[in-house]
């Protein structure tokens, strides 16, 4: 186990592979909050998927767009269940296969098919431009959807003269238990998580829907104190439309997403020399002379306020504004006492009589 993310709290909105993502983050020392924003509902018995499969067999596609690995695997598994697996593989094997991301490419190759082309950006627009360049007038394009229709992409392909067969392999549905997602909304607005990871664009919309009237507060937090990390450009698009800065890895893979956080979050740590000691603020913890000291939210809020203006005295009323609503000046004294106990190092938080508290920076 490494400790690059020790002291940081990361929210995970993924449904599928959430445990894998959480395990990787925890191996780097992070505290993880699991809050699936959506769940995947397979459509193996769905009449629309069966009809789309029949359409591909009746009018073999010249081009196949594979948007997700799980969608490709689910399509073939459903076809196998109907006794149509081999005919479908034969049809797909004769087509020019376009895969949107590496996971889709791996699923295609695992099925014994060949990848014809993949976009560098993993974006729908680049796929459309590539196909336009090939000339698709009168061609049949089968497009495996990922959870919902992509009307803009379908319209653009049809405008170029293609006949598009949409293949709905699964759909997104709300989580069975919405409580963890609502808790994550509260943690984000309270700046009690340091980062939130997203592995699909619909998860972004689901988080904002769960926030309801607090949607603007969630976006404000993501624009400032809470890092948004997305697995790829398509996932990041809804956040960027809201003006949220996003970190994305060089390749669309959960492990790469974790490494992006390992690179980015420690850079946000605040480091000071205080009373002859090295003090580093990392998420929900302080590091004193190399020793990690986890802190409760109220003491951590006080420490962050003091560290924002090192050496300056902050009054009890000023520190009160950093604590949850309803707190009083006695709560400030309690938070300072808990902060000192949590740090376990005398002299880091200094009392200035009748004025307040400060960090005596060197």
Automatic annotation (TrEMBL):
Pfam families the record matches: HEM4, Trans_reg_C
Domain OmpR/PhoB-type: 269-361
GO molecular-function terms, A-Z: DNA binding; uroporphyrinogen-III synthase activity
CDD domains xref list: HemD (cd06578), trans_reg_C (cd00383)
Domain of life of the native organism: Bacteria
Entry keywords, A to Z: DNA-binding
Annotated DNA-binding residue span(s): 269-361
GO biological process: phosphorelay signal transduction system; regulation of DNA-templated transcription; uroporphyrinogen III biosynthetic process
Name assigned to this protein: Uroporphyrinogen-III synthase
Record organism: Polymorphospora rubra
